[in-house]
From TrEMBL:
First and last residue of the signal peptide: none
Residue ranges annotated for the Ras-GEF domain, each copy included: 181-327
Protein name: RasGEF domain
GO biological-process terms attached to the record: small GTPase-mediated signal transduction
Length: 402
């Protein structure tokens, strides 16, 4: 039975929670961070019964509101935003995060804001908005390089969550690829030109591509950016990620990781890998061999009866592109065209079945943004544009001076 919690009239949280007005002010998170950093308020909060519950409630309200804003702004791409507009929105959102943290003068306030953005990232992940999750992740990692907040003793209790945020693993990759795949319209497979030519890809297919490219960049950055023996450790880590993706029946991710390891395996010299990892890596290379139209890879997923299976998209698009080309060649030959169309529809039905098995886990969230959040975003957008103009002006003046 859950415990009933009440707020006394003399409580520090009385006006903040009971009246709710404070929580919907455009600048409320900033004011809150400043408020809880004051020594007198820290004492009041510590003395209060159930203060941890009230504190967590306020923090969750702010974190969820920001996640809702980010989700809505990033999902606009699927309606009417161009690639350029979408890229600009992402830059504004990144600026939003950095400004929210850096404008505080004390590290205590910065830490509270930083920690709340970690919560926001995980809420976005629960919303299956991996674009937003990675955007917050990358921005916080950049902020950490500048501010070194995780080194502060006050951050110790939040360090586990931060380390979880920065870690890329097979579970995250599996979630992301299957979710983004489930959202690709079937029409993009029926006419798969967008898979070969990015300019012809729809917004959801582009999001899928960008998710793949993000994984590729993480793999390359982790391995190539490592020093000395850590480079071998990182290479082995990604071998394990590939194997874990196969165990999760994710052949899209499995093939993606293997092909990207192949591109940089020149950094591994003879004798660098232990016998066990050398054996594992050779097996990965064998599975990804293009011989016999990727026969070994096709045999792997052909023998996999899991309802959670994701076949490599390159296979479907190649099959359907070839079939479309043959259908064009048979124009006017109705009997053969009927058979070919039946085969095409069979393949599309298999893709739809795959997508539906993943889509069932994804909840749709409202993209309606409360007025106070729209107001806050508009203010940040104006600041971002002013800052961009100032940078451009300074660059122009420096060029003239040179």
């Amino acid at each position: 039975m859950s415990k009933k919690i009440t707020i006394s009239k003399s409580s520090f949280f009385e006006d903040l929670i009971t009246k709710q007005h404070f929580l919907t002010q455009p600048d409320a998170p900033f004011l809150w961070d400043e408020m809880v950093a004051e020594k007198e308020n820290i004492k009041k909060i510590k003395r209060e019964k159930d203060s941890d519950v009230f504190f967590a409630y306020i923090e969750s309200r702010f974190a969820y509101a920001y996640a809702k804003l980010f989700n809505a702004k990033l999902m606009e791409r699927n309606v009417n935003a161009s690639d350029e507009e979408h890229s600009e929105v992402k830059k504004i959102l990144a600026y939003f995060i950095s400004d929210d943290i850096s404008r505080h003068s004390s590290q205590v306030s910065q830490i509270n804001a930083f920690r709340r953005w970690i919560d926001t990232a995980f809420i976005l992940r629960k919303m299956h908005n991996y674009e937003g999750y990675f955007l917050v992740r990358d921005t916080l990692m950049e902020m950490e390089e500048e501010l070194q907040l995780t080194q502060n003793k006050a951050f110790k209790s939040h360090l586990k969550m931060y380390n979880q945020l920065v870690q890329i693993n097979a579970t995250l990759i599996d979630e992301q690829l299957k979710t983004d795949y489930s959202r690709i319209p079937l029409q993009d497979f029926a006419n798969p030109d967008g898979f070969a030519k990015r300019g012809k890809a729809g917004p959801r297919l582009k999001t899928f591509f960008e998710g793949r490219e993000y994984i590729e960049s993480c793999l390359e950055r982790e391995i190539m950016g490592a020093q000395g023996g850590n480079q071998i450790k990182m290479f082995c880590k990604w071998i394990d990620i590939a194997i874990d993706l196969r165990k999760k029946h994710n052949y899209e991710g499995y093939f993606l990781v293997i092909t990207n390891l192949q591109l940089i395996d020149r950094v591994i010299k003879a004798g660098d890998l232990s016998q066990s990892y050398l054996k594992k890596y050779n097996q990965l290379l064998a599975h990804a061999s293009p011989f016999d139209n990727f026969g070994k890879l096709r045999k792997l997923w052909g023998n996999d009866n899991s309802p959670d299976k994701l076949i490599s998209t390159f296979y479907w698009t190649k099959e359907l592109a070839n079939l479309n080309e043959k259908m064009e060649q048979q124009e006017g030959n109705e009997d053969i065209l009927v058979l070919m169309l039946r085969e095409k529809n069979r393949k599309l039905a298999l893709i739809a079945k795959e997508q539906q098995s993943f889509a069932g886990r994804v909840v749709s969230y409202s993209t309606k943004i409360p007025k106070h959040l729209e107001s806050e975003f508009a203010t940040i957008e104006k600041q971002y544009n002013n800052n961009k103009e100032e940078v451009a002006r300074a660059k122009f003046l420096n060029t003239r001076g040179a």
